[in-house]
Amino acid sequence: MLGTHAGFILAAYGIALMVIAVLFVWILVDGRAQRRQLADLEARGVRRRSARTTDGEKA
Amino acid sequence: MRLIDYANPTRFLGLTDKLLPWIAGATAVLFAVGLWLVFFVAPADYQQGETVKIMYIHVPFSWLSMFCYMTMAGSAFGTLVWRHPLADVSAKCAAPIGAAFTFLALATGSLWGKPMWGTWWVWDARLTSVLVLFIMYLGLIALQETIEDPARAAKAGAILTLVGVVNIPIIKFSVDWWNTLHQPSSVFRAGGSTIAASMLVPLLVMAVAFTGLFLVLHLMSMRNEILRRRIRAMRMIEAAGAE
């Protein structure tokens, strides 16, 4: 189906898939780590200045 | 609400929370259609045979390597001129994605070059200028990682990014200005595209799909960076409170 140079075609698509998958997983894992750290800080009662201002305005 | 109002990181997070699933879904559909066209509809080239299938990923990677850099340049301009709160986040997050796409443009080009040109690599203007772009991406990532203060890192990165813009027209016109093994532009050229519609349509579908992928990865990465900066600010508040 892919002719005499099938190896080159498959290698090109394979490396593209691999690099994109690594990039996607890296961003996904990083996002989870950031959300976990943020939740941890919020659980300890740490608030950003802007969040505290908003809370104060609401109160 | 005006567009500029989305410069607020909290509003940006809310907007991307709603938009990302739709963009990701549209990108997945475009990839499915594009790959079906590439592997089951598009004809083999009369000279290159099936090897032309590499074009459907190599060309979008090459376009996106430059598009990503221009996104960074626009963001760098926003950082230096308007000190836009999301401009630096955008520039910083586009760099690793641009580096990955540029690497893939080089790698897939090399895998296409070996069976067609008989060599993996030549030091001609097009290939060398794209390699320079890849090194610039790596330099910008290194610069942003080595300066701890985000404001200083943003300014230094923005200046370096804008200086590097000079490489983009060199890449684009290198095939016209110098003798090179690389073929001249076939799609965006004066006088119209020289590619048959049966190959052009799959190529454009794949290019739009990869642009969607860039958008998804960029927005996801920007959301992470906004959270990272919030965490940094909260840790500083916590440390100041502990003193």
Can you characterise this structure?
- The complex is a heterodimer of chains A (59) and B (243).
- Chain A has 59 residues and is mostly helical.
- Chain A has one domain.
- Chain A has helices at residues 6-43, 49-58.
- The N and C termini of chain A lie far apart (69 Å).
- In chain A, 12% of the residues are buried.
- The mean pLDDT of chain A is 85.
- Chain B is mainly alpha-helical and 243 residues long.
- Chain B has one domain (18-41, 52-179, 196-242).
- Chain B has seven helices and no strands.
- In chain B, helix 4 packs antiparallel against helix 5.
- Chain B is globular.
- Chain B starts with 8 loop residues before the first helix and ends with a helix.
Q: How many individual helices of chain B?
A: 7
Average pLDDT over all residues of chain B: 90
Number of strands of chain B: 0
Quaternary organisation = heterodimer
The largest inter-chain interface, given as chain pair and residues per side, is: A-B, 32 and 36 residues
Q: Outline the biggest β-sheet of chain B.
A: none
Kindly provide the radius of gyration of chain A, computed on alpha-carbon positions and rounded to a whole number of angstroms.
Answer: 23 Å
Helix content of chain B: over 70%
Query: Structural class, from helix and strand content of chain A?
Result: mainly alpha
Distance between the termini of chain B: 41 Å
In total, the number of domains of chain A comes to 1
Structural class of chain B: mainly alpha
* Rg result of chain B: 20 Å
Low confidence ranges of chain B: none
Strand content of chain B: under 5%
Overall 3D shape of chain B? globular
Q: What's the overall geometry of chain A?
A: rod-shaped
